[in-house]
Write a structure and sequence with these properties.
alpha/beta, 2 domains, 5-stranded antiparallel sheet, about 35% helix, about 20% strand, globular, Peptidase_U57
């Protein structure tokens, strides 16, 4: 077994696919390839997986991820058709899109790259940065005045700690990074107190959902303390970016559209950030100077 190998844990029935990050004697540190999970495991508990021989659970998760992306693309195409129909009825000049701008802070560089690829695919203006979870509050404080986003995503790795007090899931100290996420959300909400002016999406696997909402998030994970897919926060941000400013984001639609579903992501009623403009900018040539 080597660093970079794809593996599953035998004791967990191979439910999550990992990539070996580091190996220290007989223990490996693992990063989930599809889920925002950081774990360690004895090497004897790991089984190497080839790309063409993925467990059923992994194939189903990737299939649902593809379906979620396709659904977003179809919704976006329908939005474009409706806009063009309005233009034809009014015999007006072509409109142009102004989707909400996203600032995405991620505690995992690979997930950040995947997230930025999806933003680009969906034509969402986004600025992404890999930031360790412990540094996110400082990064939020520094970057919000510079980037001035409409939506901020604060995510990375999290999880319920093994050595916590039994059943004490209300204590932030029972989580790997929930306190760091809460601190970052509080900084963001102090910067912009109006929840419709700055949409905050926060959390990762098994994060303290209630604390994140209380600290100012619009959307957070995880109501059921479950593993969430790496791209779930991105799907929520894209939905916010392309929901018109006069409409609230459809909560059941956005939540059930994620891979993790109602146990993975929740939120509160929030207005979207999408606008249209008129007329569409065009290339100007042959303009005569007047001064």
């Amino acid at each position: 077994m080597m660093q970079g190998d794809l593996v599953v844990r035998k004791s967990y029935g191979g439910d999550v696919l990992f990539r070996v990050a580091t190996i220290d004697q007989q223990t490996a540190v693992l990063k989930g390839t599809d889920y925002r999970l950081l774990a360690d495991a004895p090497i004897v508990d790991l089984s190497v997986v080839k790309d063409g021989d993925l467990p059923v659970a992994i194939r189903q998760a990737r299939l649902k991820a593809g379906e979620s992306t396709q659904r977003m693309q179809e919704e976006r195409q329908q939005q474009i058709l409706q806009r063009e129909l309005l233009r034809a009825q009014n015999q007006s000049q072509p409109y142009f899109d102004v989707p909400g701008k996203v600032l995405h802070l991620d505690g995992d560089s690979n997930y950040m790259k995947k997230s930025m690829q999806l933003y680009t695919q969906m034509r969402v203006p986004a600025h992404g940065l890999f930031v360790h979870e412990s540094q996110m509050a400082e990064a939020v404080y520094r970057l919000l005045p510079q980037i001035k986003p409409d939506i901020i995503v604060i995510t990375g790795h999290d999880g319920v700690l093994k050595n916590r007090e039994q059943n004490d899931l209300n204590d932030l100290m029972s989580y790997k990074n929930s306190q760091n996420f809460v601190d970052a959300v509080q900084i963001a909400r102090d910067y912009e107190k109006n929840r419709d002016s700055l949409v905050i999406v926060a959390g990762a696997c098994q994060s303290h959902y209630e604390a994140l909402l209380k600290s100012g998030s619009n959307f957070a994970s995880s109501p059921g303390r479950v593993l969430i897919h790496a791209l779930d926060p991105v799907y929520v941000a894209i939905k916010a970016s392309y929901t018109p400013i006069r409409e609230t984001i459809n909560l059941p639609d956005v939540i059930h559209g994620t891979i993790s579903g109602i146990d993975g992501v929740g939120g509160i009623e929030t207005y979207g950030k999408y606008r249209v403009g008129l007329p569409k900018p065009r290339t100007l040539t042959g303009i005569k100077a007047t001064v």
